[in-house]
């Protein structure tokens, strides 16, 4: 799945968390952060530093891959 905005990323985090049968509290504890931040990220209502995102993804056993866009057009309203 392509991630183009914070809502896309939040959906992936939520899906991965649920597939591991983790609560937001459990994920927050593993990633050493507050549960409220996990909730905000999953809902796409906040941004986070790259360091924070890497901690969350590591806690979920996920990696980031950077690939060229299939669609060349840039739409700043997507961000």
CATH fold name: 434 Repressor (Amino-terminal Domain)
| CATH-scheme architecture | Orthogonal Bundle
Largest sheet, if any?
Answer: none
Could you state the order of secondary-structure elements as H and E? HHHH
Our estimate of the beta-strand percent is under 5%
Low-pLDDT residue intervals, each spanning 5 or more residues:
none
Helicity, as a percent range: 40-55%
| Highest CATH level, the class | Mainly Alpha
**CATH superfamily annotation:** lambda repressor-like DNA-binding domains
The averaged pLDDT comes out at 89
Q: Report the total helices.
A: 4
Would you tell me the structural class of the helices and strands? mainly alpha
Name some characteristics of this structure.
globular, mainly alpha, 79 residues
Give a structural overview:
By secondary structure, this protein is mainly α. It has one domain: lambda repressor-like DNA-binding domains (434 Repressor (Amino-terminal Domain), Orthogonal Bundle), CATH 1.10.260. Helix content is 51%, strand content 0%. It has 4 helices and no strands. The mean pLDDT is 89.
Question: Can you describe this structure in just a few lines?
Answer:
The chain is mostly helical. It contains 4 helices and no strands.
Q: Any chance you could write out the topology, listing elements then pairs?
A:
Layout (H helix, E strand, L loop, with lengths): L5 H14 L4 H8 L3 H8 L7 H10 L20
